[in-house]
Amino acid sequence: MLENLSPQPADKILALMAAYRADPRDDKVDLGVGVYKDATGNTPVMRAVKEAERRILADQSTKAYTGLAGDPAFGAAMRDLVLGDSVAADRVAAVATPGGTGAIRQALELIKMAAPDATVWLSNPTWPNHPSIIKYLGMKMAEYRYFDNETRGIDYTGLIADLDQVQPGDVVLLHGCCHNPTGANLRADQMAEIIALMQKKGAVPFVDIAYQGFGDGLDADAQITRQIAAAFDNCLIAASCSKNFGIYRERTGVLMAIAKDPEQQALSQQTLQFLNRQNYSFPPDHGARVVTTILTDPVLRADWEAELEETRNGMLALRQQLADELRRLTNSDRFDFLAHHRGMFSRLGTTPQMVEKIRAEHGIYMVGDSRMNIAGLNENTVPILAKAIVAAGV
Ligand code: LMR
Questions:
Q1: Which of 26, 294, 342, 343 is the most buried (most CB within 10 A)?
Q2: Residues above pLDDT 70, as percent of the chain
């Protein structure tokens, strides 16, 4: 049987992680995988997470199964964090999932069940695992233009023209904030126009929000998701806790399905639980319990929010430093977009050849599409990157 297997395509982000580890250079710089790092290159366990884990260790009296949706308190806490009061709680079905990827996978399985002929529309570019999973599930997909390689902003005209082609019942996947891989984000007024267009077309929105709190703040980053949730009878939202709680390896995420009314919510909840049962039965609990402990305790929550703000402001400072350094070196403002982008990533907008040149000559690792993880920098490596960008002739 196993002789029939053929090698599967490598994920380019994970392949880059391996290449970085194998590079013997002491001064190498990792701007690859989307993991937050502090100025010393460490990915810290957040203070509130440590304290929540201490409490769980002390107080937890059983490891018996939770439920197919995970602990309902987790679903409720995440619903409040992501959706605020944009939609009535009795319209939201929610299940815990193994990370944001688990939520995306379950959402796609749900779409496949409910609308097998729907095309899923993805931004060009998007996180490479989106098309990979869709293809694996044998679903239909299409792309809408998103990034303008000249301005390094949004190709808004192209985006609207492409979404005008959406058919009734098609699904449009949008990044809730901090677009991965570009760092270029839609404004609220643009989103209002896109919502009106999607409504006219009869499209169903699917929001992937994996970086809430990394862009403009917890509430600001949820704005697009809330606008969408408030505007449609149905939408799907996949949220990750990996980045904003720094619990990457705990695999903590949530899938929410917003239904038209409580009756449809009950059916959606039952279906989501069925899908969990088919794929892994009960979702992982530890990370979800940590998140719930933090979000429901005012002191822990305030400390988590404060540390997340420090993280966010640190990334903004690095963006500004890089933009300033490139302004100085090039005597132009053509890299100012780096300060305007938001979230963990910025797409430099250069060729794979240039990316390779920067890697070979300077030991600086970015993804081949020129996505840089800003959090991989520190005050000392920003000038090194700026010089490398200029030397490569970007
Ligand atoms: C990334 O885009 O680098 C992260 O979301 C990690 C991953 O799983 O690809």
A1: 343
A2: 100
